[in-house]
Each structure stands twice: as C-alpha cells, then as structure tokens.
Amino acid sequence: MVKYFVLYMPKSLNTSKLIKDIENCSLTKVQLAEKCGISRVTLDTVLKGKEIGLHKFLKLINVLGKNIGYYFDECESAPKIEVKTDVEASSTSQSDNINVENEVKETGRLSRLVDTIVILQEIINTQRDTIAALTERIKQLESQLQK
User: Fold this and answer.
1) Contacts 24+ apart (CB under 8 A), 39-48
2) Residue 7's beta-bridge partner residues?
3) 47 with 53: CB under 8 angstroms?
4) 80 pLDDT band (50/70/90 cuts)?
5) What is the pTM of this model?
6) Top-ranked range on mean pLDDT: pick from 8-12, 82-86, 101-105, 143-147
7) Which residues does 104 contact at the CB level (< 8 Å), separation at least 6?
8) What 8-state DSSP symbol labels residue 90?
9) Which of 39, 22, 20, 21 has its CA nearest to residue 30?
10) Separation between Cα atoms, residue 37 and residue 133, nearest integer Å
11) 36 exposed, middle or buried (CB, 10 Å; 0-12, 13-18, 19+)?
C-alpha cells in the first residue's frame, strides 16, 4: 500500500517588498549597509533578488524598521513536498523513508521557528516603541525640573 502526504509551506518571502523598502530608504546604499553591519555586496545581492543568510536578513529589516512578518506573504500556490511512504516498495529503502520523515519533521520545526521569530520581532518593535516613549517622557520631566 502506498501512502502520500503533502506538506504545504503557507508563506513565502516577498522579495519585491524588501527591494522596494531598500530603494525607498532615506539612507544611501553604503550608509544602509554600514548601519546594518553588512557589506555593500550583500546589499546588492538582496537587490538582485537573491538569498542572504537569516542573520543578515534580520539585521537589514531591523534597520528598515519592519517586522519579519511584513515580508512574508500567504502563498496561493504554496510549494509542497510530496512524501511517498511504502513499506512494501522495493525501490525505497527503510532508511530513505526515515530520512524523508526526518526532513519533513525538520521543515515543520523550521516553519514553527519562523513563526516564533515573527512574534518575537513584533514584541521587540513594541518594546522599542515603549522605550522611545519613555525616553521622550524622561526628557520632558528633566526639562521641567531644570525650569
């Protein structure tokens, strides 16, 4: 008996949003790269629509002032992974099935991690806004004390 199951990846990176935000940034490309702690070459890589590492991506969107969820869209034609499991199949060994199952588990784990990062990024942004408001209030109070 052959069983299939399909794993859908419901979100995909919207590189056009990222490129648009970089191009509309008030900083020059050199300034933006420096502020992000990435090279200009890495920034050019992004502008060409190519992938960069997660750490560099997070630095970039932090400087752009967006949360990670903003750059991910729901996929209408979600990429999917079809997994065939067949205990009786002679062409598929048991170790191959185990490897596929491990890959599916890892993909699910990574998907949950991305969701967690989105939530944490939103929390960080909220905290940043709170700190900015408190800093402004402290300045106001210090100004009043000096009068």
Assistant:
1) 46/15, 46/18, 46/19, 46/22, 47/19, 47/22, 47/23
2) 81
3) no
4) very low
5) 0.45
6) 143-147
7) 7, 81, 83
8) S
9) 39
10) 26
11) buried
74 forms beta bridges with 11
Q: How confident is the model at residue 66 (pLDDT cuts 50, 70, 90)?
A: confident
Q: Is 49 left (phi over 0), alpha (psi -120 to 50) or beta?
A: left
Tokens of 28: 């020059």
Q: Which residues contact 61 (CB under 8 A, 6 or more apart)?
A: 18, 67, 68, 70, 71, 121
Q: In the structure encoding, which two tokens stand for residue 90, read together?
A: 């002679």
Q: Which two tokens stand for residue 111?
A: 């998907």
Residue 14: name the closest of 62, 57, 63, 65 by CA: 57
Alpha helices for the chain (secondary structure H): 15-23, 29-36, 40-47, 54-64, 94-146
